[in-house]
Design a protein that fits this description.
Number of helices: 3
Radius of gyration: 12 Å
Helix content: 10-25%
Number of strands: 5
Strand content: 35-45%
Strand order of the largest sheet: 1-2-3-5-4
CATH superfamily: NigD-like N-terminal OB domain
Order of helices and strands: EEEHEHEH
Distance between the termini: 29 Å
Structural class: alpha+beta
């Protein structure tokens, strides 16, 4: 497992069907692949929202997305949203994670 860090960025969907994956585009233009099998579909619903993630940056790429994005693969452990409606959405789809609006 890698280091824990904070990333603020927009949730995006990368690739073309049927080979799409969830990623984060941060404020510096770095793209990270998100590895979160349990919450992948829920993260897809948050596409376009700007979220502050506390993540574990993995040492090795995971799954399809981790092979393509230069920022590497991350596992979100805490999320905070600052997009309209994101608090409501995140709390509904990810009740285990601590979330709050900025």
């Amino acid at each position: 497992m890698g280091n824990t860090t904070i990333i603020t960025g927009k949730i995006q969907i990368y690739g073309t069907e049927p080979h799409t994956f969830v990623g984060i585009l941060d404020d510096n233009g770095t793209e990270y692949a998100v590895y979160s099998p349990l919450y992948e579909q829920d993260l897809r619903r948050l596409q376009g929202h700007i979220i502050e993630f506390t993540v574990v940056l993995l040492d090795e790429p995971k799954n399809y997305g981790g092979l393509f994005l230069k920022g590497g693969t991350v596992i979100p452990i805490i999320m905070e949203g600052n997009s309209v409606g994101s608090l409501h959405n995140i709390l509904q789809v990810m009740p285990i994670l601590r979330c709050c609006c900025k």
